[in-house]
Amino acid sequence: MSVQAIAWAPSGAVRIVDQRALPEDHVTRDLDTAEQMADAIRALQVRGAPLIGIAAAMGLVAGLRELRAAPREPFLTRLDALAAQLGATRPTAVNLRWALDRMVSVAHATPGDGGVVWERLQAEATAIWEEDRAMCRKIGEHGLALLPDGAKVLTHCNAGALATGGIGTALAPIYLAHDAGRQVQVFVGESRPVLQGARLTAWELTHAGIPCTVIADAAAGALMRAAQLDVVLVGADRIAKNGDFANKIGTYSLAVLAFHHSVPFYCCAPSSTIDVTLADGDAIPIEQRSPDEVKTLAGRPVAPAAAAALNPAFDVTPARYVTSYVTDRGVVKPPFAA
User: Fold this and answer.
1) Could you tell me the pLDDT band of residue 298, with boundaries at 50, 70 and 90?
2) Which of 237, 244, 315, 328 is catalytic?
3) How distant, in Å, are the alpha carbons of 23, 46, 61, 84, 181 from that of 236?
4) What topology does CATH give the domain 6-138?
5) Sequence-distant contacts of 62-67: CB under 8 A, at least 24 apart
6) Mean pLDDT for the stretch of residues 67-83
């Protein structure tokens, strides 16, 4: 891969790619505290459902480094407080809560003082990262059959290396198809309001040597009507028990368009994104972000200051519009509730 979104810095801090700077600049930052990591997740310096779970786990470790000499109880009390702070940053992506719950459970189950628990936490955060890399690879392998030579694929938002610990979810089959020598034509939806598709996915693909074409989000329907798309691949931030799923705003519209035009619509996600505690998509919390993201573009106003703006970060796509889920455990076809 041409980019690694996260890593341990030599100092013990967490090194991230500041995704706000792309595509103009490739900037890395070393985050020393859990508070810095929480701010980075909230500000979209780090984003993507799998990646923010990894980042939160690693940020928890970085934030507890100075307490390694502390007795067990003060260490665990601080751990719980930092985990709550990190978990509140973004409510929709289930991987964030999943990773933090795993870290907290491991800490409370590990006997010993702060130093012993901290060492165990560092190993667990690294394991979460490594498992995600493996899951991404498996998603790519299971999805490879969906992209024959010459396939024309549309993707939305960014579900690649910048959103995960590995080669991505929705982009993983594209990367493996490219590695296999297949010519795949990739259309990248811009993904307003903060342009994760145009800024991040197109940057990723071009740096990996994969040609791509950026389109306005509103152009997707016209491409489908003209039979210029064979398949849609998207990621997910949370999948409910019945197969409804939440993803970047605009995904629902693409799913309805794909259904109408008989274009296969696949959601690619690791099994950790499935939340069986939620019966359906109506129970998925939808993050509401700042109206300024809608009213500005590259720092410049594109709407009157007096106008209101609505900015849900995600929407929910009903299971009936999903052709199949591509997971690290295989391709899952309906009925999904089983």
Assistant:
1) confident
2) 237
3) 23, 16, 26, 23, 27
4) Four Helix Bundle (Hemerythrin (Met), subunit A) (1.20.120)
5) 62/12, 62/13, 62/14, 62/31, 62/32, 62/33, 62/34, 62/37, 63/33, 63/34, 63/35, 63/37, 64/34, 64/114, 64/118, 64/121, 65/12, 65/118, 67/114, 67/118
6) 95
Sequence spans of domains, the chain = 6-138, 141-332
CA–CA gap between residue 47 and residue 205 (Å, rounded): 17
Task: For 87-139, write each residue's pLDDT tens digit.
Answer: 999 999 899 999 999 999 999 999 999 999 999 999 999 999 999 999 999 99
Tokens 């995960």 map to which residue?
Answer: 164
Contact in structure between 61 and 128 (CB atoms under 8 Å): no
At the fourth CATH level, the homologous superfamily of domain 141-332 is Translation initiation factor eif-2b; domain 2 (3.40.50.10470)
pLDDT given at position 2: 65
Strand partners, 16: 6, 29
Verify whether residue 149 is a known catalytic residue: no
Q: Do 121 and 104 touch, CB atoms closer than 8 A?
A: no
